[in-house]
Amino acid sequence: MDRERLQRLAAEFCDESPTNYLSLKAEKSREDVRRNNFARNNLYGAPSDAELLGADEDSGYYGMRFYKTPVFAIGSADDPGFEELRREGVVGPSHRLPRDWTPEAKSVISFFLPFADRTVEANKKDPVEPAMEWLYTRVDGQQHLLALGARVRDALRGEGYDAAAPQIEEEYVMRAGPAPMPGADLRGVPPYASNWSERHVGYVTGLGTFGKSTNFISKVGCAGRLISVVTSWEATPDEKDYGGVYDYCNGCMACRRRCPGKAYAGDGKDHRLCGEFIHRTCMKYAPRYGCGKCQSGIPCEREQMRAKAGGSGADARPDAGGENRI
Ligand code: SF4
Ligand code: SF4
């Protein structure tokens, strides 16, 4: 494996994979929905009924693309930042280290998949209601996010490396709310967190920083999703061009003013209020859900804002959680 091949593989997969396009009901099987832990990663959805996750051919949404070409950063599995994530007040002791996923881990690859322009533009129109494009991308598009992790993991395995994509592995645990699912093995994971926070991992690998929204701002902005792969492939780590957790944020607070759930107060975000708002969207649009007003219609949606930042906030500790929590 090398960087050029990795970039090509990810770009071609996103162009060509049917998982990156909204499909008709008839094309989406129950096996598609179960594969790659789609159900577990979509807790508000209704994955038991695959047909609900399709779309009508006449809807105007059929065939829409979910994600643009991904960007990625590669970090060393030995980066001390991974240990830092286990501290109370960062993510916590339940956060796993790279070698908990792959014993011979040498590298961690973080991908950021930017939402398609159509999705971001559509979600700017109404200040409260999520655009249908956003709902489709958040729920149906989840399959593509996970499929990219599987594709990269399997390509590395095919070349003889060990590899794991934590979000689709059995050991992955996330808690979308305070109440545990009946019988769930929580492994010490606190509410609104997971044992592998893609946003925090992205920060450690050099992919980007946090914003005042608590969202992750990559070099191509915050409107998108993340997934990572841990591997024994020993790649040269990326140089980080930031030193503080808010370096890509200019502190304008546009994200907070956009929030229809009134989830921001003081310096933090009330994940319970965000979760309640998301739940209300699920009641209305089930099996889909979503909001994303704090990821669209804001200055950092497509670019990082470091050039205009007033300070690095190097001592701040962004918490885990929220719709974008993974
Ligand atoms: S909208 Fe402004 S304050 Fe919010 S994350 Fe983006 S740059 Fe930071
Ligand atoms: S996703 Fe949550 S925090 Fe973001 S705007 Fe919506 S309700 Fe607010």
Percent strand = 5-15%
Helix content: 25-40%
Assign the structural class, choosing from mainly alpha, mainly beta, alpha/beta, alpha+beta, or little secondary structure. Answer: alpha+beta
Count the domains. Answer: 1
Mean pLDDT: 86
* Ligands (ions, cofactors included): iron/sulfur cluster
Write out the strand line-up for the largest beta sheet, numbering strands in chain order: 1-2-6-3
Q: Order of SSEs, N→C? A: HHEHHEHHHEHEEEHEEH
> In angstroms, what separates the terminal alpha carbons?
26 Å
Description of the molecule:
With 326 residues, the chain is α+β, with helices and mostly antiparallel strands. The protein has one domain. It has ten helices and eight strands. It has a four-stranded antiparallel β-sheet with strand order 1-2-6-3, with helices on both faces. α1 packs antiparallel against α7. It is globular, with a radius of gyration of 18 Å. It binds iron/sulfur cluster (2 copies).
